[in-house]
Amino acid sequence: MELAKCRNCLITDKVPGVQIGSNGVCNLCVDHTAGTSRADDTGRAEREADLERTLAEVKGDGEYDCLVPLSGGKDSVYLLYKLKSQYPHLRVLAYTTDVNIPDIAWHNIRTTTEKLDIDHLVFRPPESFYRKAFRYILRHQEERGAVYSVSYVYAPLFEGDAIKVAVEKGIPLILAGYSPGQPEPERMLYEFSRELIETVEWTPPEMKACGEFSEDELLRFFDPAHYPAGTRFPRYLAPYHAWPYDQDEIMKEVVRLGLVKSSKHASPIFSNYPINWLLMYSDLKHFGYNPYLPEFAALIREGKASLAQWKILGPLVDFMISHKILLGAEVRRSMKWLELDEDQLAVNRPRGAYDPPILSR
């Protein structure tokens, strides 16, 4: 049976809180058309003013003024270009935590850093911890599923790595290529709060309580308590939460600039972490819809992504995942890498088990 989808943004009523009317339009699109989201325009203008002021005034204690986490995706690539071309006074350090990054993303990373002549620091942590963590989480997912459970362990790990590097090198500003809606607004809307960076331990509750991870392994997570009093922690901002954002235009622009080889290399379908295919497979199996659908539907709704493009790509991606073919064959490879059987992909932990650190500003 075919899922009911909104004709405007493609979201399905399988997503909690979504209802699709008799006219084929979902309640989220109705609310958006009614203007309930326009208040954010004022907030965006305030954020953009703060960002521009910050970029004009920031000055590091050492060689660099800002650090940019570089995953090799279109957004982090274009962010580096914009900083280099529009803010030439900034001394920028690109930074990558090398875990589960695909070859296409590495090609984008090398091309971009070489073409823009930007210093690039790569940290390669032992793979064994990540394999252990991914394997444990997928066997003990919380009720929001695999993407939520793994992402909100994985993201704080590399976010924490970036903070550690910034502190070590006296860099006062981290600029992340999160698109609008990433991460959850409750966790970050433009900036991680000062309290979050300066006072909160980032270790996930479930991993701390389960007894399967050693103290040394849990030290991989950022904890400001490990630093002496008076430590200067960086601001951590998401510029695309402040600047106007258009996903399709960024994909075209990074190719035009020669930072990315082709539209294929610019597509998040190809440049994202390979384990994401397994996470999507698990969530499709358990919930009946792609876990990234709400995010892309929101971008379509706001005119920041192409309805026509995702009308084709969305079902194609889900077909590849469900049948484990073409790019979806990555599901099998990740399961082999983690030594997991399909019946071990289990949702058996309560909501909040892997909640990332959150403090409102």
Features:
Rossmann fold; 361 residues; 48% helix; three-stranded parallel sheet; two-stranded parallel sheet; mainly alpha; single chain
Strand order, sheet with most strands: 1-2-3
The CATH topology: Rossmann fold
Separation, N- and C-terminal Cα atoms: 45 Å
Structural class: mainly alpha
- The CATH class label is Alpha Beta
Biggest β-sheet, characterized? 3 strands, parallel
Low-confidence region ranges: none
How many strand segments?
7
Helix count, DSSP H or I runs of 4 or more residues: 16
Strand content: 5-15%
What is the CATH superfamily?
HUPs
User: What integer value in Å does the Rg equal?
Assistant: 20 Å
User: Which percent bin holds the helix content?
Assistant: 40-55%
Judging by the overall fold, what is the CATH architecture?
A: 3-Layer(aba) Sandwich
Shape descriptor reads globular
Order of helices and strands: HHEHEHEHEHEHHHEHHHHHHHE
> Into how many domains do the coordinates divide?
1
Would you tell me the overall average pLDDT?
Answer: 93
